[in-house]
Structure to design on (380 residues):
C-alpha cells in the first residue's frame, strides 16, 4: 500500500511539471470607470511606485530666450578710411577706453585728409594776414573798400574750409601735425573688446559694411559691456497676458545648471510675428561674473497667473486624448485616474494648477501600466 501511494504521488508531481500543464491563474485587475483595483497578491503592484504629494510651491511659466549684447553699451567698429592694417594694438577680452587706438591703418585716403587740413590751415593764415594788411591800408586811405570786403570774404571762406578739414580729422580723433598717412582707429566708448575680425596685412575700406559677403559684413572690432546683456524672448499668445513691463525674470542656462540669474523685462512688442505667431519682448540680465555669453540660449521664467502650485514628477503625468491625467492611490491596491491642469516644467517636475491636492498619494512609476489595464478591460 505504501509503495502504491508513493508511486501515485510521484506520478502526480510529474504530471504537474509536464509541458502541457497550465500555470496557476494570476489574479485579475478590476476596472470600474476611472478606478483600477488590483488584488493584494497581484504582482503588478510591485511595478508601481507611490509617493505623497508635497507642499505647494511658487509657479512659473517657462519661455525660451536668447542672450545678445546690450546694444546701448555696444559699438561695432568699422574703418572710415580705406587702407591696409599694419598693426593690431588690442586683444580680445582686453579693457579699452574711449579714444584708445585699436589698430594702425596705413591709408592714402587718411593722408589726403591730413594734407587737405594742412592746406586749409595755410590758406586761412594767408587770408588772415591779407585781411590784417588791407584793414591797415584802408584805415590810412591807401586801399579801397571793395578790396577790404573781398579780403574779408576770402578770410571767411578760408576759415570755414580750415574748420571743415580740421573737424573731419577731429571726428576720428586724428590730427594733421604728423602727415604720416597712419590712421589710429579709435574705440568710440569705454568697454571690453569682445570681438575681433581683422588681421595684420588685411585690406579694409569704409564701404565693407555694405557688402553682401560674410567676411566683409563683420565689423573689424566689437566693444561692449559683457556685465549686462539683453535677453530676447518670443512670447506666445497663450502667455502674452502674463508678461508686463518691469517684470522680474528668472534666467537659467544648461551651461550653469546650478546658477540662477536675475533680470527685468523692459520692452514688449506691439505686434505678433506672422510666421512664429509670437510677440517679441526684450529684457536685461545682470552678468557681473561674465558667466553668461552672447548668443547663448536660456530658459526664462515668469511668474504664473496662479502664484502657488503643486509640483510632481513629470513621469507621473501622461496625456490621453488631449487631457493630462495622474493616478492617485485612494486605498491599498485601488487607484483612481484624475484629470489635471499643468503649469511649467522644470528640473524633472511639473506644476499642477488644478485637479490634485497636497498630501494625496500619487503613482509616480507605473501610471502607463494602470492605463493599459483600463484600455484592456472589457467595455460594458
Amino acid at each position: 500500500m505504501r509503495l502504491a501511494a508513493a508511486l501515485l504521488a510521484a506520478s502526480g508531481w510529474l504530471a504537474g511539471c509536464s509541458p502541457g500543464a497550465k500555470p496557476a491563474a494570476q489574479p485579475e485587475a478590476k476596472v470600474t470607470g476611472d478606478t483600477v483595483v488590483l488584488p493584494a497578491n497581484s504582482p503588478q503592484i510591485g511595478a508601481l511606485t507611490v509617493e505623497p504629494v508635497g507642499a505647494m510651491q511658487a509657479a512659473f511659466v517657462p519661455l525660451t530666450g536668447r542672450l545678445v549684447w546690450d546694444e546701448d553699451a555696444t559699438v561695432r567698429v568699422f574703418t572710415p578710411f580705406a587702407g591696409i592694417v599694419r598693426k593690431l594694438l588690442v586683444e580680445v577680452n582686453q579693457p579699452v577706453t574711449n579714444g584708445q587706438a585699436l589698430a594702425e591703418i596705413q591709408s592714402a585716403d587718411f593722408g589726403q585728409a591730413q594734407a587737405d587740413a594742412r592746406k586749409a590751415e595755410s590758406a586761412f593764415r594767408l587770408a588772415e594776414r591779407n585781411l590784417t594788411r588791407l584793414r591797415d591800408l584802408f584805415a590810412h586811405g591807401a586801399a579801397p573798400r571793395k578790396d577790404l570786403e573781398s579780403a574779408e570774404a576770402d578770410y571767411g571762406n578760408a576759415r570755414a574750409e580750415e574748420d571743415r578739414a580740421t573737424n573731419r580729422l577731429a571726428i576720428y580723433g586724428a590730427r594733421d601735425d604728423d602727415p604720416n598717412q597712419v590712421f589710429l582707429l579709435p574705440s568710440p566708448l569705454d568697454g571690453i573688446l569682445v570681438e575681433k575680425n581683422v588681421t595684420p596685412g588685411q585690406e579694409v575700406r569704409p564701404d565693407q559694411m555694405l557688402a553682401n559677403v560674410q567676411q566683409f559684413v563683420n565689423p573689424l572690432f566689437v566693444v561692449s559691456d559683457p556685465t549686462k546683456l539683453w535677453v530676447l524672448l518670443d512670447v506666445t499668445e497663450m502667455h502674452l497676458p502674463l508678461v508686463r513691463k518691469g517684470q522680474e525674470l528668472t534666467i537659467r542656462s544648461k551651461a550653469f545648471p546650478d546658477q540662477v540669474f536675475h533680470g527685468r523685462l523692459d520692452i514688449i512688442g506691439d505686434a505678433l510675428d506672422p510666421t512664429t505667431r509670437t510677440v517679441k519682448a526684450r529684457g536685461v540680465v545682470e552678468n557681473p561674473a561674465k558667466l553668461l555669453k552672447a548668443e547663448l540660449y536660456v530658459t526664462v521664467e515668469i511668474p504664473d497667473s496662479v502664484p502657488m502650485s503643486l509640483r510632481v514628477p513629470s513621469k507621473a503625468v501622461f496625456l490621453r486624448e488631449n487631457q493630462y491625467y495622474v493616478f492617485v492611490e485612494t486605498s491599498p491596491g485601488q487607484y483612481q485616474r484624475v484629470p489635471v491642469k499643468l503649469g511649467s516644467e522644470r528640473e524633472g517636475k511639473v506644476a499642477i494648477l488644478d485637479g490634485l491636492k497636497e498630501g494625496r498619494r500619487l503613482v509616480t512609476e507605473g501610471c502607463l501600466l494602470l492605463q493599459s489595464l483600463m484600455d484592456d478591460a472589457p467595455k460594458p
